[in-house]
Amino acid sequence: MTALHDHTALELHQLLQRGDVSPVELTEHYLARIERLNPEVGAFATVTPEAAVERARQVMSQLPKAAPLWGLPLADKDLHRRAGVPAGFGSRAFTGFVPDDSDELVRAVDAAGAVSLGKSQTPEFGLPSYTEGAGVPPTRNPWKLSLGAGGSSGGAAAAVASGMLPFAPGSDGGGSIRIPAASCGLVGVKPSRGRVPAGSGLTSLAGLGVAGPIARSVADAALLLDGLIAPTGYPAAHRFSVRAPGGDGPFLGAAIRGEGRFQVGVMTDSPWDDAYEIVIAPEARAALEVGIEALDGLGHGIEAMAPVPEPGYAAAFRTIWQAGAATIPVDGEAEALLEPLTRWLVLLGRAVPARQLAEALAWLSGFEERVIRRFASFDAVLTPALALTPRPVGWYDPDDGERNFAQQVQFTPFTSFVNVAGLPAITVPVSETVDGVPMGVQLIGRPGGEATLFALAAQIERRARRSRRTPALW
Questions:
Q1: How many H-runs (helices) and E-runs (strands) does the chain carry?
Q2: Over the stretch 29-43, which tens digit does the pLDDT of each residue have?
Q3: 311 vs 314: CA distance, rounded Å
Q4: Distance between CA atoms of 336 and 397, rounded to whole angstroms?
Q5: CB 256 within 8 A of CB 219
Q6: Preceding omega of 377 cis (within 30 degrees of 0)
Q7: What is the DSSP annotation of 422-435?
């Protein structure tokens, strides 16, 4: 008999709709998984079993089954406040903080009928691309526990990859969904800027940070994204006049059908190349070749893209990243509780002159235009998901902020520029290392091009036949 956690999220949705399983039964099953597996994986910052079961009962009695995520378990990233649940933001500076109000994204998943089982682990304020820090166990990669799960949505990815959740929402300001998804052999989607009303990016500095799904399959990711976009059903309730072009969705149909033939560019340069030594590991190149061969074999047009230098990118992005950290609400003696990387970013950010910030924003706006123009002749652009294999726990320099930042860039040079450009992107696992650790590719779409990305990703997924693979601890 198939265990509940062996089912995809879409299959669980169908079981719930038919009444073959109840939200309470499903919640209790996943809570038992968390109790058994979380101590060695470290995916959860907080588990709320009593509240989760009560919420499942509430869903059954008060919400219509038509709610897009009715009865499906997930977890809130610990950057997102849920009223009455501790919110540490991955920081010792917020130990014991319990918010009175919930963030918009949390309210959205509730409106969609989901059941939160707790808070997924995140690094301090979501700044690094790995999920480790002082005072808490590191979040480990379920495929090989000596490796990290990536970040900043590392807890969400580790929970999904280990079967503690069927899927999970994350946030992505420079790759924070796609990096852990690729590290843990999952599908991760960074939507277009303005696509998800509760995580649009339109209120964040330079429009970088958006909300999106992490899942085991392309269809599961589309199911969750539809729930995030339109929690009470389409049309979506957008609150800004500016949003992603094209139709809002739903996107599940495109992910299930996986139809169409497209023109795909292949890009192996990054805008960090002029500032850092970027080396694509053999395993990452092998994954890229698998992606190219899959698309070529399916009849898509494939074209290698010539490198385009962007020597101003590193300085402009660093300014924005530092300026964003400057707003972290930690001051005075409490600054001593911050991680060295965070403190380094905060102090540099608070020293950024207004003119430098304005010039960086203007430069990145021009960069966005150039990227969109460069990609215009393609329906999608294929890149490695990561330049290196998933990094060992403890690999990043804990004390030297400058070196730590460089390590992150060298690990993931293909993600942050997509946030700057506001484009949608999806990562898909396609191969594995000799140690059995998954490796993936990234597809970047046109503005508002999520449907095309889901169609292409579904085709690659079918070709690679990896969506049902699970780690040994499963």
A1: 15, 13
A2: 999 999 999 999 999
A3: 7
A4: 18
A5: yes
A6: no
A7: T--EEEEEEEE-TT
Task: Report how far residue 24's alpha carbon sits from residue 289's, in angstroms, rounded to the nearest whole number.
Answer: 44
- 138: three-class secondary structure by DSSP: coil
User: CA separation (Å) from 405 to 19, 45, 173, 312, 373?
Assistant: 49, 24, 15, 17, 29
What is the phi/psi pair of residue 378, to 5°? -115, 145
Locate 292 and state its tokens: 């190219």
**Alpha-carbon torsion 297, 301, 306, 312, what sign?**
negative
Distance CA 389, CA 387 (A): 7
Q: Kindly give, in sequence order, each residue whose CB lies less than 8 Å from that of residue 238, ignoring residues fewer than 6 positions away.
A: 194, 197
Token code pair at residue 308:
């385009």
Q: What is the DSSP string of 258-291?
A: -----EEEE----TTTTTS-----HHHHHHHHHH
Q: How distant is the alpha carbon of residue 84 from its chain centre?
A: 25
Opening angle at CA 183, ends 426 and 409, nearest 5: 85
Take residue 256 and report the two structure tokens written for it.
């299930």
Only one residue has tokens 């949003």, namely 243
Read off φ and ψ for residue 326, nearest 5 degrees. -60, -25
pLDDT tens digits, residue range 133-177?
Answer: 987 899 999 999 999 999 999 999 999 999 999 999 999 999 999
> Quick check: 124 and 90 in contact, CB under 8 A?
yes
Please give the positions annotated as active site: 77, 152, 176
User: Closest by alpha carbon to 295, among 449, 428, 123, 386?
Assistant: 428
The mean pLDDT of 39-55, rounded to a whole number, is 98
